[in-house]
Amino acid sequence: MGELYASESWSEVLFITAILGGGAAWRAGRAIAGTWRPAWHVVGYMVLLGAAIRFVHFALFDAELLSPLSYLADTLYVILVGSLAWRITRAGQMARQYPWLYERTGPLTWRERPQAGSEHHHAKIG
Predict the structure, then answer these.
(1) Cα–Cα dist 80/92, whole Å
(2) For the whole model, what pTM was predicted?
């Protein structure tokens, strides 16, 4: 696959990086959001996952272990997938946990719920 994945076939990259690594990144992104941790945590965990993906390529298919370009490509891919999973999960959380404050506007977004009548009417006692 050119210089990026010099000693690996496209099927190896598809299986290890895209399917296994992407699946792990998706689950990790959802778990990070599910515990209300900030989005930057995704990056830290995906840097480690990128190293694990590189090791699996090396262990199973005798690929080059210390390949900076391959590691960078794997890591950027899992950061993207993990961040997407985090954002989708967070959008659902905000609308589900705080339905009186927020409503979901799409798979990645939410907004403040419009107030019924912007003025607050308080009942007077007495």
Answers:
(1) 19
(2) 0.84
